[in-house]
């Protein structure tokens, strides 16, 4: 399925569309301007449509167990107040309006005029429900023509939402092209990328690498790669509450998000302290796992089987790093490990626990700087500022409390950047 | 290995409760052999503080470590020298890595006797020649999958006039050609010989549905059969209930439900499970089944759904006396089936699954894909 000029077209017409797209896009770039207000107003109306249940059917099909929560989030995010706030935070005044420079020493002035990049190709991954539509929205808000390649895993929700948006505001139709061509159709993706000023790629290393190899030299590539997050513990303000919130976060996110806790670091050099922590934390994690257990037998069985495999494999290979230090609970487990690497866990209730003394935070984490995202920090109040600073210096881009590692904060950056800033360019006119 | 021989070579295939003692001692024999000949397996038993001698009655066989099939995909574990392994077979590796399992001569002989006994019980053995239509892979030198070997082997239950395959090896890779196989079915239906359609249920079902859509109606010769095996694989979401399948087969091919026979087995558990005339998988004397709780892995009583754990002492070359599948199943009392067999039967009700999981944690997608269960 393709969306072209607000119309749904069958994929069999792909080649014809690509041929006429180039000219259509030039016409749009030459003669039209997309005002921010047009997009904001359409999004606000869309938000109400979603709130009133227009997409409930599709949303209920989502694999996520928290579909209702997800709907509320989307509705809130798209409201006028939030979108306007987002624009203000991300673009500020400088990137929204043309200004004249006023340089020192009597040098000549020049106009600074922010412009959209032009055409953005979004290659969206199926790693979050509805993500393709959000990526496109950011492209629209910064005034660009957007070509969106949907992921195979999309259940049609993104397509429905985008079609709904164009229906609300037909002016947007010149700025939106959607394709659900498979990633294996390299020829098409190459043609689409040749039309683009910027390529936004969401996904893991393999997807990003593939796009880098295919993109025309000089094309601006904007990567939103996969990330790793962890919790860091150095004392407590309210131990029981903080550990329970951390456990809830681990279980509720299934540890599949960039911001999900994979490893818990303790501010210590002693392995004994790691073991003591595991003994204390396991029943808390178990409690949370039982409270939030999936209703699906298949999902629970899969998680149990993964953990069972890990146990058997560890015994079989006599894995020294984890020798005898696996703490098995019902629906969850902890492994006490002797190294200090932030590492992907086996997910679904399985967490690694390691030592990382605060004086080694930067040296220990630096090797992983390109993948670090959130650190959920539990510590004594008087240590919070210093530890936050160390974590940020090591490459972490987000420090939160442990229970809110995956919470959305209005106005926050994404992986160390404001996306819309990357979707505009600064031009100068004398 | 004496008890294994008695278990496999003698008696009726469904004397199950009658052979509990024999089964137990054959399992102990095998377990002890693995303990002494396979370091990896010894590591597991030692790690769990379990010695083969501590398995004292039939209920204790559930204590034998149950290895997930994924273990065999990650590790090559053998308990004999390569020379003594007559065959090494791989799983079909539907989603990623493949298991590799070794079989020794004596184990294969046990297997052969088992297959002949079950085939004879189910009246699959015939001297009347027939045409075979195989919804599976055409054998090829590079293909060592057990499912290809068994499909080919099964074409000897009755002498083969012709063998036609739905999945052909073309230009270096396997390709499914259902259109072609439908033409072959229509062509072969005019032959004087009966036809046996066999192979993956999903492909068989897709082909029958295509024939139904085209309005094709054939009446196959008496003695024709559909033999299904190999699981639904990646087409699990298309799984249809048995009644729908039987009605479709009768409408399109004129084959009655009594002539549809279903099998299941896995390279990691090579016991032939064959359905009875009421389409139930009774446990044969060669294996036992433990259904395990999806959260705690503790054995469950009859009637409750859990993970399917299959046990058999058949093979010595690989320590697979107790394997954990990724199927969800339930055990039923044999007495509730009208076929007359007393042995409990297994109903497969689903497959574990996180297939559609979405993730943005670094490395997670690769991990999930690689370790697809």
List keywords for this structure.
heterodimer; A: 430 residues; alpha/beta; Aldehyde Dehydrogenase, Chain A, domain 1; Aldehyde Dehydrogenase, Chain A, domain 2; 2 domains; seven-stranded mixed β-sheet; globular; B: 373 residues; Rossmann fold; six-stranded mixed β-sheet; 29% helix
Write a brief caption for the model:
The complex is a heterodimer of chains A (430) and B (373). Chain A is of the alpha/beta class. In chain A, 42% of the residues lie in helices and 20% in strands.
Write the layout of secondary structure elements.
The complex is a heterodimer of chains A (about 425) and B (about 375).
Chain A (H helix, E strand, L loop, with lengths): L1 E3 L2 E3 L4 H18 L4 H16 L4 H5 L6 H11 L2 H12 L7 E2 L10 E6 L2 E5 L7 H11 L3 E5 L7 H12 L7 E4 L6 H10 L2 E6 L1 H10 L5 E6 L2 E7 L4 H14 L8 E6 L4 H21 L5 H21 L8 E4 L2 E5 L13 E6 L5 H5 L6 E8 L4 H11 L3 E3 L18 H4 L1 E6 L1
Parallel strand pairs in A: 5-6, 5-8, 6-7, 8-9, 10-11, 10-15, 11-14, 13-14, 15-16
Antiparallel strand pairs in A: 1-2, 1-7, 3-4, 4-17, 12-13
Chain B lengths: L1 H8 L10 H18 L1 H9 L19 E2 H6 L10 E6 L9 E5 H17 L8 E8 L8 H8 L6 E11 L2 E4 L1 H11 L6 E5 L1 H13 L11 E4 L13 H12 L6 E7 L2 E6 L6 E2 L5 E5 L13 E6 L10 E11 L12 E7 L12 H7 L3
Helix pairs in contact in B: 1-2, 1-5, 2-3, 7-8, 8-9
Task: Walk me through this protein's architecture.
The complex is a heterodimer of chains A (430) and B (373). Chain A contains 15 helices and 17 strands. Chain A is an alpha/beta fold. Chain A starts with a strand and ends with a strand. The model of chain A is unreliable at 320-324 (pLDDT under 50). The mean pLDDT of chain B is 85. The longest helix of chain B is centred in the first third of the chain and has 18 residues, at 20-37. In chain B, helix 1 packs parallel to helix 5 (105-121). In chain B, strands 6-5-4-7-8-9-10 form a 7-stranded mixed β-sheet. In chain B, strands 1, 11, 12, 13, 14 and 15 form a 6-stranded mixed β-sheet that branches. Chain B has a two-stranded antiparallel ribbon with strand order 2-3. Chain B is of the alpha/beta class and 373 residues long. Chain B has helices at residues 2-9, 20-37, 39-47, 69-74, 105-121, 146-153, 178-188, 201-213, 242-253, 364-370, and strands at 67-68, 85-90, 100-104, 130-137, 160-170, 173-176, 195-199, 225-228, 260-266, 269-274, 281-282, 288-292, 306-311, 322-332, 345-351. Chains A and B meet through helix 12 of A and helix 3, strand 1, helix 4, strand 14 and helix 10 of B.
